[in-house]
Amino acid sequence: MNTHASIQIGHSACPHDCPSTCALDVEIIDGRIGRVHGAKDNSYTAGVICAKVARYAERIHHPDRLLKPLVRAGAKGEGTWMAASWEAALDRVAEAFIKAEERLGSETVWPYFYAGTMGLVQRDSIDRLRHAKRYSGFFGTICTNAAWTGWMMGAGALRGPDPREMAKSDCVVIWGTNAVATQVNVMTHAIRARKERGAKIVVIDIYDNPTMKQADLGLVLKPGTDGALACAVMHVLFRDGLADRAFLDKHTDDPQGLEAHLKTRTPQWAADITGLPVADIEAFARLVGETKRTFFRLGYGFTRNRNGVVNMHAALSIAAVTGCWQYEGGGAFHSNSGIFGLDKSLIEGQSFRDGSIRSLDQSQTGRVLTNDAAALHGGPPVTAMLIQNTNPANVAPEQRLVRQGFLRDDLFTCVHEQFMTDTAKLADVVLPATMFLEHDDIYRGGGHQHILLGPKLVDAPGEAMPNLYVIEELAKRLGVADMPGFGLSAREHLDWMLEKRGLGTFDSFKAERWADVQPDFDTAHFVHGFGHPDGKFRFRPDWTNTPAPNRPPASIGIQGPHTLLPEFPDHVELIEMADPEHPFRLATSPARNFLNSSFSYTPTSVKREGRPELMLHPEDAATLGLGEGDRVEIGNMRGEVILHVKLFDGVRRGVVIAEGIWPNDAHERGEGINVLTGADPIAPYGGAAFHDIKVWVKAA
Fold it and tell me: Could you tell me if 269 and 550 are in contact, meaning their C-beta atoms sit under 8 angstroms apart?
């Protein structure tokens, strides 16, 4: 920690669910934080962070933070609470868990968590309690499943070129991610390539968002049609002699079969599906075919469709056809999550995990909690929950079912939170949680190559306590505190993990601040072969047998209409197609000032976003008799929501965008946008299709 005048500078890492995982320099003034800055000496963060984290003081010092344990005093969801001591509150939670287990067996308890913090100790210690007690497993499908699965089907390993190589590229393709809003450091390196090398920036998305405004070539297509665009691009590459046949013959499984398959996937065929002009498809294909140093930065957004796995695999396949993997500044990148090698076995209690215990699908929370037999996978109903790091009453699909489930009289719920979220409001016990600057943890950057330390920098307000404290105290009360991994402090866990990785101890790593673990060029660029056993990139995936980080556990099995997945890259109409009753297709894209639901309580974020709105093409609005600011009701078979019209010509007609996620009570009827999203899984390994929703639209 450096001192300058009365301001101390502490060093940390952003804990939120964003691939950038920025290295941070934090102003500390008399025990409170001031402005937060990106670390200039971290080569990926490069001094740039998003505005919502820069003003983190608004969040950490917010007057509405939870400061003491609360126990429900009235009906569920009524909002009547009594303060309690930590001892009494934890005793009540443990008693409820024990009673539930005695009545229905251990699988009736469902520890539930996600990515509100990405710190490995504070996020993942809940699994140690889960495995020790044989509670139901948690299959976390709400975010990465479709993207990671599609990538693995082609490349076979979850890694790629050094993301800093974007600055050395001659063409950066930003596909399916609004990087300006969701991972600003992508833009740092892409813009550097433009300034220093004259690189072209291509942006592919479903609306004219802030990233699109940075593009030399912007392609706005219809949701769920990315596979068609990718196939037409590869058609042109083969047709015009721009495919690298030597690379294809050496490094891919069936280039001849792919070329034959693509004969009918012409630019006109793709134009009819995507809504793009043929000329734009041809121009994009020529650009990437003639520019060897093309870097494909593939995001998550375009995979959140029911054909999302196919879309990712198809887009990834372009890099194999051009052979751009061979060049510095070339190749494709989605996530480096496979490179870090941090051993979480002690944190997660892997030594006592029992694979026969059933797992439950996060995306199907509403169905699980309303006792849908298929969602329960042959086990008992869920009657007790501990929830950390997530807000399912707001962010999970089929929101009406989720709320209905949480309101069950026979369900006991403990929520450990920083604010009174939509989920906390439905709990029986609410415990106050620390924020990332108030506890010790370690982070890894999926969008880059750094392992970063986040030591405690300030004291927590009131009685807020870290996740690890809750897990340890419940372990004592539930009789498992003597099992391996329990009884250790966060720093002791970090010492164990860092030493196993050869990175020293907490104290020595604190001085280093981060470690760069980027693989060498040949490994990152798959020079000696891709991650499959035969070393070949797969144009013909084995959709149901390919290993992937989030392959479903045996108790859940292969997901969705997997028998309809194509032999080669293609467009498959597994999406929720518009129909006469639902003529519009809705995507729930991220808002610039929110991150899922995490920043929806900070004043500046709320002020800048304004209110929940529906981006509607002016011609569609005219047809419906709607004008700017009008109240509009959108709905489908799952429910309906009221928003306000924002006229916007940056979408294809028939496509509407609702940026979020807003708290449920920001909407007129107290129900949020996820009333409209479905929980049917994406084939083949699951996931939620948040940008794949058919709706009707009418004046409210």
Answer: no
Residue 310 has pLDDT above 60, yes or no: yes
pLDDT at 166: 97
Find residue 636's DSSP bridge partners.
Answer: 639
- For residue range 211-224, what is the model confidence (pLDDT) as tens digits? 999 999 999 999 99
What does DSSP assign to residue 682? P
Nearest to 112 by CA among 376, 377, 345, 389: 389
In this predicted structure, what is the pLDDT of residue 4?
52
Residue 15 has pLDDT above 60, yes or no: yes
Q: What whole-number distance in Å separates Cα of residue 542 and Cα of residue 164?
A: 32
Sheet holding 331-333, edge to edge: 217-220, 200-205, 171-175, 294-298, 331-333
d(CA 475, CA 483): 9
Q: How far apart are CA 582 and CA 655, in angstroms?
A: 11
Rounded distance between C-alpha atoms, residue 14 and residue 445, angstroms: 10
Please state, in angstroms and rounded to a whole number, the distance separating the CA atoms of residues 221 and 653: 10
* Spatial distance between the Cα atoms of 493 and 490, rounded to a whole number of angstroms: 5
pLDDT digits (tens, 9 = 90+) for 447-458: 999 999 999 999
Give the whole-angstrom CA distance, residue 475 versus residue 454: 25
Confidence of residue 598 (pLDDT cuts 50, 70, 90): confident
Q: Please report, as a single letter, which amino acid is at residue 66.
A: L
Torsion, Cα of 283, 284, 288, 294 (10° steps): 130
**What contacts 309, CB < 8 A, 6 or more positions away?**
146, 149, 150, 153, 303, 543, 565, 682, 683, 684, 685, 687
Note whether 7 and 29 are within 8 A (CB): yes
Please answer whether residues 290 and 574 qualify as being in contact, where contact means their C-beta atoms are separated by less than 8 angstroms.
no
Q: What are the distances in angstroms from CA 577 to CA 255, 273, 563?
A: 31, 12, 19
- Give me the pLDDT at residue 77, please: 94
pLDDT confidence of residue 419: 97
Beta-carbon count within 10 A of 637 CB:
10
Q: Look over the chain and give the mean of its residue pLDDT values, rounded to a whole number.
A: 96
Helical (H) or strand (E) element with 394: helix 392-395
Distance CA 89, CA 482 (A): 22
How many CB atoms are closer than 10 A to CB 509?
22
Please say if the pLDDT value at position 595 is more than 80. Answer: no
Amino acid present at 134:
R
pLDDT per residue as tens digits for the range 628-668: 999 999 999 999 999 999 999 999 999 999 998 899 999 99
Question: How does DSSP assign 184-209, residue by residue?
Answer: HHHHHHHHHHHHHH--EEEEEESS--
Which whole number is the average pLDDT over 544-550?
Answer: 96
- The reported pTM is 0.97
161 near 295, Cβ under 8 Å? yes
Would you call 459 exposed, middle or buried from its count of C-beta atoms within 10 A (0-12, 13-18, 19+)?
Answer: exposed
* CA pseudo-torsion sign 394, 398, 400, 402: negative
| Residue appearing with tokens 């996060």 | 362
Identify the CA nearest to 557 among candidates 677, 374, 685.
685
The phi and psi torsions of 660 (rounded to 5 degrees) equal -165, -165
Q: Check: CB of residue 589 under 8 Å from CB of residue 691.
A: yes
% pLDDT > 70, the chain: 99
Helical (H) or strand (E) element with 25: strand 23-29
Which pLDDT score is estimated for 605? 84
- Angle of CA points 676, 681, 682, to nearest 5°: 105
